[in-house]
From TrEMBL:
This is NADH-quinone oxidoreductase subunit J. Its EC number is 7.1.1.-. It catalyses: a quinone + NADH + 5 H(+)(in) = a quinol + NAD(+) + 4 H(+)(out). It comes from the Bacteria. Coiled coil: none annotated. GO terms for molecular function: NADH dehydrogenase (ubiquinone) activity; oxidoreductase activity; quinone binding. It is a multi-pass membrane protein. Keywords: Cell membrane, Membrane, NAD, Oxidoreductase, Quinone, Transmembrane, Transmembrane helix. It comes from Ectobacillus ponti.
Amino acid sequence: MSGELIAFMALALIAIMGGVLMLNLTKVMHMMLALVFTFLSIAGLYIMLSAEFVGVVQVLIYSGAIAIIMVFGIMLTNHDDETDTKGKWRGFLVFLGVLAFGGVMYFAVNRVDFAANGVAEAALHEQNTKQIGELLYTKYIIPFEVTSVLLLVALVGAIILAKKDDEGEGRSDE
């Protein structure tokens, strides 16, 4: 067995285990940790596919920013620690669901004939970050700028809404 196959199997196993643990754990912080393991293993799979830019973005945005925002949301909200009352069949049903999904995906991927689609093997893995940057700032500059303006408007709107909530709470004390 090659080192690449072992790395793929380890990352795939971590991703699957993280997803299953996220569904079966009862404490929210443990679920978040399982989600972070899933995100990191998927980033590793992207890097193995020579998509370094997507892998780094996966780590920065999902494993970093989104997970931290969710942790802050969990910490700032009031939630009760209730026990699971769904019964002992839940774990078995989750296992059957994961097994069925894995089987369907295995047979679906094995039936695809990539050579018959007439796709020429392109050198996409060579300098893919440079290619993404050149396309982003030449061909897709207008959607990039519109997205940045939309995000700026959303940020200003969120600040205005948060400020209105603070002003409303201050006036109720009078």
